[in-house]
Design a protein that fits this description.
Length: 142
């Protein structure tokens, strides 16, 4: 089975075989590694590209620089993202810069995490999660 993923470097869609884990995977367009799975900061346009073209779950962290719990959770979020390359796509939305997205998704408190599958919101959680809880939450939807 093949899945579509979006290259975090050039945003081109790649079709790759679905596997439990990957030793190597490079973008067919820009040749950079698709396994570099640090959370990607997105605006509305980039978010729509990831949502429309990802067969894997897309997790979005809605945060803001003035939010203490958001900053505290950031390393755990990055750790979870790095542990799950090509299993799930981790994104970040700075709600201070992207206020339209914050209201579009009715973000009432931050951090709020929303998990999307096939462009649809599947579940959201508010409040900071540890790396382990984050991974377990996402793994339910792989
Ligand atoms: Zn690329």
């Amino acid at each position: 089975m093949n899945v579509n993923v979006v290259c975090p470097h050039c945003l081109k869609v790649n079709r790759i075989p679905k596997k439990e884990s990957y030793a190597k995977a490079n973008c067919g367009s820009c040749k950079n590694s698709l396994l570099e799975s640090k959370p990607v900061a997105v605006d509305a346009e980039k978010l729509s590209i990831f949502l429309a073209n990802s067969d894997i779950p897309v997790v979005v962290d809605f945060w803001a620089p003035w939010c203490g719990p958001c900053l505290q959770m950031a390393p755990a979020y990055e750790e979870a993202a790095l542990a799950m390359p090509l299993q799930a796509q981790f994104l970040k939305v700075n709600t201070e810069e992207q206020q339209t997205l914050g209201s579009q998704y009715r973000i009432e408190s931050i951090p709020t995490l929303i998990l999307f599958k096939a462009t649809k919101e599947v579940e959201r959680v508010s409040g900071a999660l540890s790396t382990g809880r984050l991974q377990n939450w996402v793994k339910q939807y792989l």
